[in-house]
Amino acid sequence: MSDQPEADLLARAARLVLRGYGEQLRHRGWNAALAALAALFVFTAYVAALVALALWLAPRFGASGAAGIIAAAALVLALVLLAVIRLRDSRLQRLQDEMAELRQTAFMAMLASLPGLRARPLLALAAIAGAVFSLFKGRPGGQDGA
User: Is residue 12's pLDDT more than 90?
Assistant: First the structure.
């Protein structure tokens, strides 16, 4: 121990925090590697399934007919997935707009109550801080990634 116990305490706290971040990074790194390996196997199975489908369709429709059928089916599936994504995005945007409106309404209600809090300045300051925090929470670039 040195003559400055505060410095030692700060250094120990910093080591604990950095060790925690290292563990999280190591855990996430393994998860990413395993997810990449799983994606490789899924892609391999997908290609094998397409080849098997083409071989099964080829005697009936010929090679070009089988390729056309597979391409058309893939296009239809892609369009359906894009439509689902668009529907989910519009629903999420609507929910975010509603939350922003509710947040603004709560902020205005808090502002309307400020004259009643004149006798309690500390409570008024806490209410203002909470309202400002709620206004900025959930905005793009914030901690929640919205």
Answer: no
